[in-house]
Amino acid sequence: MEWYDRVKELKKQNHVNTQQLSDKSGVPLGTLNKLLSGQTGKPKLDTLEKIASALGTTVKYLCDGEEDGGFSVLRDKFAKLDRRGREAVLKTADEELSRMEAEARRAGSDIGLKRKIFIYDVPVSAGCGSFLDSSHSSTVSLVVNEVTDRADYAVRVSGDSMEPRFFDGDIVIVESCGEIPVGKIGIFLYNGESYIKKFGGDRLRSINPDYKDIVFGENDEIRCLGLVLGTISKAE
Questions:
Q1: What is the topology classification, in CATH, of domain 114-232?
Q2: Residue 234 pLDDT more than 50?
Q3: Distance of CA 63 to CAs 2, 3, 27, 83, 185, Å?
Q4: What is the b/e burial string over 46-83, where b = at least 16 CB atoms within 10 angstroms of the residue's CB?
Q5: Residue scoring higher pLDDT (147 or 231)
Q6: How far is CA 36 from CA 151, 178, 191, in A?
Q7: Cβ atoms of 131 and 165 closer than 8 Å
Q8: Rounded CA separation 137/154 (Å)
Q9: Phi-psi domain of 203 (left: phi exceeds 0; alpha: psi -120 through 50; beta: other)
Q10: pTM
Q11: What mean pLDDT is predicted for residues 59-83?
């Protein structure tokens, strides 16, 4: 598991999206999206420290997973408390959970609420391959819902190999992750070129039957950059 995969898990545990993590950590949204998409190398130590602090964990845990996200410290302290202390902690935890649930309900009623995510200006290929250049980027706004809240970045589709599911010019939103289940559609870096394809275990598949499978060879380099969640309007 890569360090950014641990960040992804902690984001879900803390109910924090990438925009909120950026606001809390002070790491710019564009920088954060590049890091979490796996397109940029390991961040500087001070950047990791900001991300770790915002997620309530340590740099060591993000880098090697040896700690459990900071919960071991809380567990040890809780074990030292007497009955009265434990009841007080549990009461506070229940109150905080109730507060979070109320805030989530209020957020769900905010119709039209939007967030921004990173989008590559160079499209990914739904055909013969293109290079996903992380140095050329901008942002796009999304209406917040349970699907778009998972999105870490967006890319434009180029080509027709994924028709009729995705068309040339579509913008797809992506949840960054290092692997996806067989049969799911993702963004892949294959021998230096980026593709939107269906993962076939030992190959990348197209939906359009006019295109052959890309079968992995012994010396091929393949990396998953994320799970495709869906499309957004070209006007956005």
A1: Umud Fragment, subunit A (2.10.109)
A2: no
A3: 8, 5, 18, 36, 28
A4: ebbebbbebbebbbebbeeeeeebbeeeeeeeeeeeee
A5: 231
A6: 11, 10, 20
A7: no
A8: 10
A9: beta
A10: 0.50
A11: 68
| DSSP reduced 3-state for 222 | strand
Question: How is domain 3-64 classified at the CATH fold level?
Answer: 434 Repressor (Amino-terminal Domain) (1.10.260)
The region, left, alpha or beta by phi > 0 then psi within -120 to 50, assigned to residue 210 is: alpha
Query: CA-CA-CA-CA torsion for 31, 36, 39, 43, nearest 10 degrees?
Result: 60
Q: Are 35 and 25 in contact (CB under 8 A)?
A: no
pLDDT in tens, 138-161: 777 777 677 778 888 888 888 888
The tokens 């909120």 sit on which residue? 20
Match 């200006």 to its residue by tokens: 121
pLDDT digits (tens, 9 = 90+) for 114-147: 677 777 655 554 444 444 444 455 777 777 677 7
Position 140, amino acid = V
Whether the ω angle into residue 164 lies within 30 degrees of 0, i.e. cis, is: yes
Sequence-ordered list of residues with C-beta below 8 angstroms from that of 65, at least 6 positions apart, any chain: 1, 6
The region, left, alpha or beta by phi > 0 then psi within -120 to 50, assigned to residue 193 is beta
Do 4 and 10 meet the contact criterion of CB atoms below 8 Å apart? no
